[in-house]
Design a protein that fits this description.
Blueprint: E1 2-6, H1 12-15, E2 20-22, E3 38-43, E4 48-54, E5 60-66, H2 75-92, E6 100-105, E7 114-119, E8 122-127, H3 130-133, H4 136-146, E9 151-156, E10 169-175, E11 181-185, E12 188-192, H5 207-213, E13 221-225, H6 231-238, E14 243-248, H7 251-263, E15 271-275, H8 278-284, E16 289-294, H9 306-322, E17 324-334, H10 341-355, E18 360-365, E19 384-389
Parallel strand pairs: 1-3, 8-9, 13-14, 13-16, 14-15, 16-17
Antiparallel strand pairs: 2-5, 3-4, 4-5, 6-7, 7-8, 9-10, 11-12, 17-19, 18-19
Helix pairs in contact: 2-4, 5-6, 9-10
């Protein structure tokens, strides 16, 4: 195993269990180290600091995955981490009526660059970095050993791979995968298309927000913007909504939303399905709604676009508030990593000022319990959701 020496003035984040080590932190990196190669980090005083894998010679050179000097890397190494994450999810998340959740959340489960989502008896995996992809065989074997899924499907068709010079890839890695998987979440059922759906097929990180929204929808006219496959809509109907309007740019997603509504025994005739740009719908809408969900894609893809993205969030939130009934509820979300919770709250407060409505914050949510984050790894924060009364 290659040993790399860390400059004494740069050991603080490593000692604090931050999972990324930048190339400038090392005294030197020898030529010829391959992506995925296990490395051991030591201080200039010779003290062991952490272990990880070498990723590249630029920016994030090493991603950390352990703090035990004697631990060796192989299938058993990955099995131990997967087993620990699996035990945590089965203890705190999986229960009768819920069988879909994030099983591995990258750095925060000490498997940096790896995402594994469970959908009932099936797994969907993403390999985000060149380094973790080099261990694909061992990881898949460990998943089959610990979880024993009926099928494993890869959805490594994500933009983040381009930073490592990797193309997107997707396909079956083991077993079989049906065209649609039926999952259960808080007692409701949803159809998931893991081959073609957004992310890995379903927004698992919104489970707790969907359940929270349900209590605000009794007798309400609900607008679900960026509705995707109707997750919030099903919960709204379960909460007693009298009507739900779904707006999304994908016809396929809206068809699945309608199926999900009927799958849970609700009358799709109480719903409207509008295929189009949600931003344009909000701009042109003349109706009033008692509860509105805004769950858009990330408007800020990199820090250079932060102001442009903030302007986009302000626009859709202002338009939503203007069509929100008195004492109505707005559930507004952002999944932009480059926008903090404090910044998001501030821009919503600015919306209240522009619309002359004193918005009252009722609830604040971030990631679900199956999306843990290392306390030191603030870069892993992305999702924030505010429930405000207007």
């Amino acid at each position: 195993m290659v040993t790399l020496t860390v400059k004494q003035k740069r050991i603080g984040p490593i000692v604090g269990c931050h999972p990324w080590v930048f190339s400038q932190a090392f005294v030197r990196i020898p030529d010829g180290v391959q992506p995925g190669e296990p490395v051991r980090l030591k201080s200039e005083n010779g003290l062991f600091l952490a272990s990880g894998y070498f990723n590249s010679y630029s920016q994030i050179a090493v991603r950390l995955w352990g703090y035990d000097e004697t631990e060796e890397v192989g299938e058993d190494f990955f099995a131990r981490r997967i087993e620990r994450a699996h035990e945590q999810r089965t203890r705190y998340v999986e229960r009768p009526g819920t069988n879909a959740y994030r099983l591995i959340n990258g750095e925060s489960d000490l498997l940096p660059g790896l995402i594994v989502d469970r959908y009932a008896d099936y797994l969907v995996v993403q390999f985000h970095t060149r380094g973790i992809e080099s261990w694909k065989r061992e990881i898949i074997e460990a998943l089959e050993r610990i979880v024993a899924p009926k099928g494993i499907y890869e959805r490594s068709d994500v933009a983040v791979r381009r930073a490592d010079g990797l193309d997107g890839t997707a396909g079956l890695l083991g077993g079989t995968i049906p065209d649609l998987i039926t999952i259960e979440e808080n007692g409701f059922r949803f159809l998931v298309d893991v081959r073609h759906g957004q992310k890995t097929g379903f927004f698992l990180d919104q489970r707790d927000k969907r359940q929270a929204f349900m209590k605000y929808t009794k007798d309400a006219a609900v607008l679900n913007c960026f509705s995707y496959t109707g997750g919030f809509s099903v919960y709204a109907l379960a909460g007693g909504a009298r009507a739900v309007t779904n707006v999304d740019s994908s016809e396929a997603a809206l068809r699945l939303a309608k199926e999900n509504i009927m799958l849970n025994g609700f009358d799709a005739g109480r719903c409207e399905f509008i295929c189009g740009d949600a931003k344009a719908y909000l701009r042109d809408c003349s109706e009033t709604f008692d509860a509105i969900v805004l769950d858009p894609p990330a408007f800020i893809r990199d820090r250079r676009k932060q102001q442009e993205g903030i302007a986009g969030y302000k626009t859709i939130n202002e338009r939503a508030v203007r069509i929100l009934s008195t004492n109505g509820i707005l559930a507004t979300c952002s999944c932009s990593t480059h926008l903090s919770l404090a910044e998001f709250r501030y821009l919503v407060s600015e919306v209240g000022g522009r619309t002359r409505r004193p918005l009252k914050l009722l609830e604040t949510y971030t990631h679900g319990i199956d999306h843990p984050r290392l306390v030191s790894f603030t870069e892993g924060d992305y999702l924030k959701c505010l429930f405000v009364a207007g």
